[in-house]
Amino acid sequence: MRESEVIERLRRIATAPEARGLLDDVAVLDGYVVTHDSIAEGVHFLPSDPPASVGWKLVAVNLSDLAAKGAEPAGALLALTLSGPSEWALGFLGGIEAACESYGLPLLGGDTISLPIGAPRVLGMTVIGRAKAEVPHRSGGKTGDSLWLVGTVGDAAAGLALLRAESKSTGPLVDIYRRPVPQLVAGRGLAPHAHAMMDVSDGLLLDARRLAQASKSGATIELDALPLSSAFVAERGQDLAARLFAATGGDDYALLAALPAELDPETLSLPKDTRITRIGSLSGAGPSLCLTCRGEPVELPEKLGFEHEGNFPCGLSTSPMADRP
Amino acid sequence: MRESEVIERLRRIATAPEARGLLDDVAVLDGYVVTHDSIAEGVHFLPSDPPASVGWKLVAVNLSDLAAKGAEPAGALLALTLSGPSEWALGFLGGIEAACESYGLPLLGGDTISLPIGAPRVLGMTVIGRAKAEVPHRSGGKTGDSLWLVGTVGDAAAGLALLRAESKSTGPLVDIYRRPVPQLVAGRGLAPHAHAMMDVSDGLLLDARRLAQASKSGATIELDALPLSSAFVAERGQDLAARLFAATGGDDYALLAALPAELDPETLSLPKDTRITRIGSLSGAGPSLCLTCRGEPVELPEKLGFEHEGNFPCGLSTSPMADRP
After folding, report:
1. Domain co-membership, B206 together with B275
2. Does A116 touch chain B (CB under 8 A)?
3. Which of A291, B85, B119, B142 has its CA 20 to 30 A from that of A115?
């Protein structure tokens, strides 16, 4: 599979302005933000994952794309494959319902199909959101902008590592891996001010480079500034190796925003408990991504995140587990 | 898998009015009609089917749901799984592009995911349409309405039977099976006048019964009135057995409309070559489905179409091949 060919072909088909060149997390149609994400068993989730957490995550990763565009949830369509005992599907739907209720997302329809016996489950969701005024693109970042991160990075990757070592692991990191939280309210607060915004799903470094490239800029990420949770620090520490792990792990569903340098997000109406951290800046020249730690340059790691899947279109925001370190 | 449980669970989640009780082919959100259909390799299409025809069909079955609601295509999201050689995906996208161009459907986004090696392909599409004034429901049929069919029935099922006997079969029936035509323009002409309308995808008899039940009516279908193509008649004849085959075969993507008895569709502005045929009526009482042929009652066949998949939500309009006679 030469995937670049496939993505290239998709770009030649999707020429309408609403498609945003297939370079954004979403399409924008008449004031609505629309996005679709699918997940496959054995690729994006483990057969042993609790089905309710798989349902929750499918909703959350789609809502994270809405959050990055400052949109309000309007409705969802579910693509459900039926296979195996109905307990799995019922548990999965319990997670769908819990997440839809938590974030005020009405389930409007979709379809159910059978799969051949033994085929891995593939589950998809389309989410439609009502956009507010301007919908920030990935590509609007400007020289001198500060890069801000809403949320923390590394928790989900650390949780997955725990599960890989011991499938019965529990604790806050496993919870965050299984039940990510879309930053909807913070996204709505930032969207009117952000030159560019996206959700961090495939790894902060990879996603930051995507934002910088789309904005024809270079991004500098200050690794010592990365927001890490206390659970993450307790598990993996906070040295450079831990910070690089957190910055490339993916599945964070944090928000990355390019804001004017003079804007202090504290002055915006964000929820009181929003953790928002300045982690770098955009410059006009130089390579698309530079790293520093305590002011010293740091070499780029070989892998910035999960790149092999198409970032065609509109939010490939579910990084596959299969290829993780 | 006790599928009825799963569908029941979905109904308890999807309580918003826009979901139309999960009893229609589509959801209707703020004047937009939205629908999603997925197809799986080995269930809805054969691994030997030309990939371009699979792409065409995925677009066409989704547009057929829009046609049944009188909506104009506004945009599509594609859920593409990548596996095997890229030639398949490129061929598939050629079919997507051809159908999108034919019907003025802009491809806006979607996602691409990898599947585990050897997993059957699952392909999904969400289509959004702009609704015109009233969007006919399945449930609006009234006692005394005439039932009209746009298009013919049986061609696709006859084409599939030819392919099952000889996978290299060709000809007009195979073409219709592989490249169905959504009745978009006729649907827009009928929608303002139809008490109820749906597309015929799972078998005319099954779908007519669904319309009758949703409308709390009984449907009588006059088998001798069924519109059959000359290619169908040449292949299978037009006796009662052939007519029952045509009425239960599925994959027709014809439109079934309940119109006021006094309305002559010839007076509507339908495209000149529209084949529209009165095939029965709705009554206030009696069983939900009765068949006649030349005025004599005909016993219902054991199988009315493809019922085992959920008609959750919004157009399960792709009948699986696996369970066909």
Report:
1. yes
2. yes
3. B85
Average pLDDT over residues B145-155: 98
Residue of chain B nearest A23, judged by CA positions: B109
Question: Do A144 and A67 have their domain in common?
Answer: no
Which residues span the domain enclosing A77?
A: 3-130
Confidence of residue A324 (pLDDT cuts 50, 70, 90): very low
Asked if B116 has any chain A CB less than 8 Å from its own CB, the reply is yes
Number of structural domains, chain A? 2
> Does B23 lie at the interface with A, CB-CB under 8 angstroms?
no
Cα B78–Cα B79–Cα B81 angle in degrees, nearest 5: 130
Lowest mean pLDDT among A59-73, B33-47, B93-107: B33-47
Structure pTM? 0.91
CATH of the domain at B11: 3.30.1330.10
Same domain, A82 and A147: no
Which residues between 119 and 138 in chain B have a beta carbon less than 8 angstroms from any beta carbon of chain A?
119-120, 122, 124, 126, 128
Closest Cα in chain A to B90: A6
Which pLDDT score, from 0 to 100, does residue A307 have?
Answer: 61
Q: Do B79 and A124 touch (CB under 8 A)?
A: yes
Final residue before a domain boundary, out of A78, A106, A130: A130
- Within chain B, residue ranges assigned H as helices are 3-13, 51-67, 86-102, 155-165, 172-178, 184-190, 204-214, 230-236, 240-248
pLDDT at residue B307 in the model: 61
Q: Do B19 and A107 touch (CB under 8 A)?
A: yes
Q: How far is CA B124 from CA A124, A207, B218, B316, in A?
A: 8, 26, 34, 12
For residue A126, list chain B residues with Cβ-Cβ distance below 8 A: 34, 36, 77, 126
Same domain, A69 and A146: no
Q: Within a 10 A sphere around the Cβ of A228, how many other Cβ atoms?
A: 20
Q: Does residue B311 fall inside a structural domain?
A: no
ipTM of the complex: 0.89
B316: closest CA among B160, B228, B151, B206?
Answer: B206
Residues A96 and A112 in one domain: yes
B220-257 per-position pLDDT tens digit: 999 999 999 999 999 999 999 999 999 999 999 999 99
B49 inside domain: yes
**Contacts of residue B224, Cβ cutoff 8 Å, sequence gap at least 6:** B243, B292, B293, B294
Sort out which chain B residues have CB atoms less than 8 A from A69's CB and list them: none
Tokens of B43: 């269930």
Tens-digit pLDDT profile for residues B281-321: 999 877 899 999 999 999 999 999 876 443 333 333 334 44
In a domain, A311, yes or no: no
Does one domain contain both B107 and B158?
no
Residues A67 and A189 in one domain: no
Interface contact A44, partner B, CB < 8 A: yes
For residue A13, the surrounding DSSP H or E stretch is helix A3-13
Instruction: Give the dihedral sign, CA A111/B36/A313/A146.
Output: negative
Between residues 147 and 176 of chain A, which touch chain B (CB distance below 8 Å)?
A: none
Contact A290, A236 (CB under 8 A): no
Residue A303 lies in a domain: no
Average the pLDDT over A141-153 and give the result: 97
Average pLDDT over residues A271-298: 94
Task: Find the CATH number of the domain harbouring B163.
Answer: 3.90.650.10
Q: How far, in Å, CA of A205 to CA of A224, rounded?
A: 14
Last residue within a domain, chosen from A74, A108, A130? A130
Mean pLDDT to the nearest integer, A260-286? 93
For chain B, say whether A87 makes contact (Cβ under 8 Å). Answer: no
Shortest distance between the Cα of A268 and any Cα of chain B, in A, equals: 30
